[in-house]
């Protein structure tokens, strides 16, 4: 022992100087002292001592070697820092890696603490290019310890997160305490193997977020996640499709799970995704048997109860908007849920409830058998028939409480919730819309009485509102500093009483006029068509919400006017009008060189990303097109008309709408045919805009040409023959690099793919535009057949709505 102590001292003096910094291993007689590094063979990672932020303490850690900003991915002595630069790392006589403070060479600060059978002389520690520090027996080459089994807050590609039942090892991430303290923080990311395994973020021992349960629907853009669950192991891992990309998944000290990628161009880490962020993300936000809707388009509150359930405390629920109490079953006392004619109600496209209370009955079972299976067992509260990798249909059944259900229109599954016979009958009645004759008289009496009541109520409300409006005019913009309420007279004066000369254009929701306020400021006034189906207060709420969305690529809403027949919105004025006025104009299009067009593409993508996920509200634009992209003096793009889809919510249900607002040529197939919209429909429209920007041609201007039904039809055809360059706007060709343009075309084609799941999310699009990351190859886009066949060759069932279309650029189609 004494000898070893002596040895450590002497080696410090000798080897400290002799140490070669290009080494990636340490063996028995070497040490790493503060100031030395191990560097992995391909120069990807370094191991050494560091002090985070302003901390004076020293930690042993691993960081990215090629990233300018020191980014630590693993820390050895996270809870036992060394005071001053006096750390020594070596291999002790038992073959363990040990970290000492120079001032105390007896008791290690940190140790790998494994029992190694081999003698110390043949144990080697090596820093691999994956960022893994391994300790292995040099003779048998067997690993005795590795840092990937003891992660701190970062998960690197190739690392496994989860349980190894053979060794009893559980690997999970624990956040740092703060940016300058890598000590064990309060948040952790763990796999809970109960029921069907899921990933959770814990705060202490409490769940705060739940990932998608068994990730049966993995589709990989850049992060290629995988999941293994067998009798030996349950773990999640990921790989990277592009080996040159530097990225990581980390749980930061505030409890956010982030996917981040290093952007060499900007010299900083860019966030690719971060959770929790939507109001529905916190675990159990709507309580037991509740269901959360992150878009809550059709309600004022994001929480609702599953069918057959009602709020436990209606007061908390409706007035305080606190859903944590959850829901309880209706008619709990009077009817039984079992063996009394009960049935199942479908809830479509949801993140399925917490599966720790669920059981996979079978990986290969028809939906009908799955239902039978659930019905047989009285404690089965719901089931789902889930398509696994397009091969099998798994049957998942829940027993007991249903927690943490939320609508997810992109990756959700359908679940079937057990309800009693009464509920089933009520739902059937609603669907049929027919009432028994016997009830007609009663209904008639009730309706006459309630009609009178409604008339009286409305008169009262109207009088009250009228009074309030007068008050509002006095209040003006005082109560909402971010938005102004304009008087009708002000608007009339500004727009010269809506003189036709001031008309700027016609959008999907109304006519736009140019105006000049008395202070000389130029504005654009949008007169919304009357049928928004909203009351004044609702309208005001919506406008206040929308006014809070602020982004450099969104047109700024200055105020509104709620006097008069139609509500009006007042926007900042964009002197350069809209993108289509440049793109499709022979003389003006040359003003937009490639640099400008690329900046416009990126700007539009950032704006859409913001409304999709970065703002608190999740907004789907639904009518993205070049005429809705306005340009400011510097030709920066600004998206207009966002949020209007919220105001004109009309009679839409959760994921379908009876009223299709949009423009042919920009609408995704699932939206045109089924009225189904999601953020991916906006991605589709973005893809069209991108391709129009590059080609300078309207997507729907091809209908006269025989061979190609649309611009994307033609570009897809040429792309496959590697002739896409022929489609690039000729006025661009001298100002651009072909590689860059072709990359953009590829991104555009990825966005317009027919399959919703194959289309990238907006965050992936922004990433692809801003990096050199390799791109997947696009599959067949939608609408590559002749345009007229969209309407006539419909495979719609008779009950589906049918749209009559007579122009190629209609802005609004109302379907019956
Ligand atoms: C380590 O150093 C000791 C003392 O200098 C020496 O006896 C031993 O052979 C060395 N071991 C290795 C593997 O170099
Ligand atoms: C660290 O060392 C410095 C002097 O070297 C001393 O003043 C300080 O108290 C020490 N801090 C701790 C926490 O031991
Ligand atoms: C080392 O491991 C043993 C059991 O494997 C454990 O009892 C002991 O507390 C550990 N020591 C340290 C310092 O972690
Ligand atoms: C962790 O939680 C404890 C108990 O709630 C709290 O006192 C402490 O400040 C938290 N620590 C951090 C770093 O948030
Ligand atoms: C589990 O481990 C045992 C023994 O290590 C092995 O024989 C078996 O094939 C493993 N099973 C799976 C599914 O990997
Ligand atoms: C994703 O990972 C799986 C399993 O690790 C692998 O089989 C597959 O080839 C990977 N896909 C891509 C695109 O890298
Ligand atoms: C119902 O399912 C639960 C959970 O799988 C099980 O424990 C129980 O025995 C089942 N009851 C019947 C009657 O099959």
UniProtKB/TrEMBL annotation:
EC number(s) reported in the record: 2.7.11.1
Topology term for the membrane: Single-pass type I membrane protein
Ranges annotated as spanning the membrane: 440-463
Apple domain location: 338-420
UniProt cross-references to Pfam families, sorted A to Z: B_lectin, PAN_2, PK_Tyr_Ser-Thr, S_locus_glycop
Localization per record: Cell membrane
Signal sequence residues: 1-22
Keyword annotations: ATP-binding, Cell membrane, Disulfide bond, EGF-like domain, Glycoprotein, Kinase, Membrane, Nucleotide-binding, Serine/threonine-protein kinase, Signal, Transferase, Transmembrane, Transmembrane helix
Cysteine pairings via disulfide bonds: 286-303
SUPFAM superfamilies found in the cross-reference section: alpha-D-mannose-specific plant lectins (SSF51110), Protein kinase-like (PK-like) (SSF56112)
All residue ranges annotated as the EGF-like domain in the record: 276-315
Binding residue positions for ATP: 526
Limits of the Protein kinase domain: 498-783
Catalytically driven reaction(s): L-threonyl-[protein] + ATP = O-phospho-L-threonyl-[protein] + ADP + H(+); L-seryl-[protein] + ATP = O-phospho-L-seryl-[protein] + ADP + H(+)
Annotated Bulb-type lectin domain residues: 23-148
InterPro entries: Bulb-type_lectin_dom (IPR001480), Bulb-type_lectin_dom_sf (IPR036426), EGF (IPR000742), Kinase-like_dom_sf (IPR011009), Pan_app (IPR003609), Prot_kinase_dom (IPR000719), Protein_kinase_ATP_BS (IPR017441), S_locus_glycoprot_dom (IPR000858)
SMART domains: B_lectin, PAN_AP, S_TKc
Family listed: Belongs to the protein kinase superfamily. Ser/Thr protein kinase family.
Protein name (record): Receptor-like serine/threonine-protein kinase
